[in-house]
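Changelog-adjacent note: as of this version, every example in the card shows the full chain rather than a window. The one below runs 71 residues end to end.
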Amino acid sequence: RDLAALILAPLPDLPAETRLLLVAPGLLQDVPFAALPAGRGSRAPLVTRHEIVHAPSAAAAQAMAVAATRR
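Full-length structure tokens:
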């Protein structure tokens, strides 16, 4: 819960089923973000409320988005 508070607390409350793009630096890539609590006071894992998408960098995420629009 402490980790969730540090990482997710700065985010606004997001509507359910919002896609979350995670670009985690270094060792944070090993954090199982999908298993973190979905919100303040929630015990349900984040993955039950949101689609979790990982990208190695913001540039890679942008390149994937551009490539997807060209299809």
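Structural remarks: Strands lie at 19-22, 51-54.
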